[in-house]
UniProtKB/TrEMBL annotation:
Keywords: Methyltransferase, Transferase. The keyword Transferase applies. This is tRNA/rRNA methyltransferase SpoU type domain-containing protein. PANTHER family: RRNA METHYLTRANSFERASE 3, RRNA METHYLTRANSFERASE 3, MITOCHONDRIAL. One of its GO terms (molecular function) is RNA methyltransferase activity.
Length: 330
């Protein structure tokens, strides 16, 4: 029989041999570069993509979080400049993949990066992922995120146009854009104060639809109104109805005589639905500038039960779009 010390040495040697003869399939693909704090320029680049609208525009790219959204981008044939997989530190150190420490999706990506085409691939720990995505994003230990290139977008004014007037909440804007695409409202005028359509939370809420969303920016609602007037649009403002109306579905009304609210009828072909933050509503009561009179624009409202809270702007906006579509037989 072998002495205990000899058995111990043999066991250690066997363990070392096993560790050095692991199959290739159990190691992270060589295409992945480990991203850490020793590359501050690249880390800063990713952070600025999340934080700064001007930097996103300059780089023509955005930061995207989550596999579902990334798969949406791939389906739309949007180029990924980088793909990153959050990886536990022991795996980063050894590059050996332990199944128990990874989700099935993360393991597959680390072994087969070609399953999601990208120019560069990175693996990094959760602490750096939180710094890049922001703690509010609540990334999980195997979070996947990407830098995506924004494709060229041509703004062609459609017959049914949206006007986003100071919508600050990225979730609301993302949901509005997603609903708009589904209901065939395909572009917008974005008034100053509206969150960037390329904000990472807008992209996530819109399921990547905002990345290819056509829009034009304006400093004030008066400037947007002048543009609409020059292009033959009838502005219709989503607003709270100040009187009780016995109706099912959206109604139109004149702000000078709200008691005359009526069911939708007789609209021109080119209309622009103006949507504002539900916190402020449409507060343009003062006289307009240069002939533009936003305070006099036709209103659209959704009758509700007495005492009911106002609807979220993304819900109300979708209902108004659907009601206007029915009228126009879209």
């Amino acid at each position: 029989m072998l002495p205990t010390t000899a058995k111990s040495k043999m066991a250690k040697a066997a363990a070392v041999a096993k560790a050095t003869t692991r199959p290739v399939g159990d190691t992270i693909s060589a295409q992945y570069k480990i991203l850490n704090r020793n590359d501050p320029k690249l880390v800063t680049h990713f952070c600025q993509l999340r934080e700064k609208r001007a930097y996103r525009a300059d780089q023509n790219s955005v930061l995207v979080q989550g596999l579902k959204t990334i798969h949406e981008l791939v389906a739309r044939q949007i180029h990924l400049k980088a793909l990153a997989v959050t990886t536990p530190p022991p795996i980063l150190a050894s590059r050996h993949i332990e199944d128990a420490a990874l989700t099935q999706e993360a393991r597959h990506l680390l072994l087969h990066p070609e399953s999601i085409p990208a120019t560069r691939y990175y693996s990094l720990d959760i602490h750096l992922t939180r710094r890049i995505l922001g703690t509010a994003s609540q990334p999980h230990p195997n979070e996947v995120w990407a830098e995506a290139e924004r494709p060229p977008i041509e703004f062609t004014p459609p017959d049914r146009l949206l006007v986003f007037n100071g919508i600050k909440d990225p979730g609301n804007l993302g949901n509005l854009i997603r609903s708009a695409r589904a209901l065939n409202w395909t572009a917008s005028l974005n008034v100053q104060g509206t969150v960037d359509v390329l904000n990472d939370k807008v992209i996530r809420a819109s399921r990547a639809t905002s990345l290819t969303w056509p829009f034009q920016s304006f400093g004030t609602i008066h400037e947007a109104g002048a543009w609409m007037e020059g292009h033959g649009y009838m502005p219709i403002v989503a607003d709270m109805l100040p009187v009780s109306v016995d109706a099912v579905g959206p109604v139109l009304w004149d702000p000078q005589s709200p008691e005359g609210a009526r069911p939708l009828k007789g609209l021109p072909r080119k209309i622009a639905l103006v949507l504002s933050s539900e916190h402020w509503g449409f507060k343009m009561r003062a006289h307009g500038q240069g002939g533009v009179q936003p305070h006099a624009w036709t209103r659209i409202s959704i009758p509700m039960m007495p005492g009911a809270e106002s609807l979220n702007v993304s819900v109300a906006g979708a209902m108004c779009m659907l009601g206007l579509n029915a009228l126009l037989q879209v």
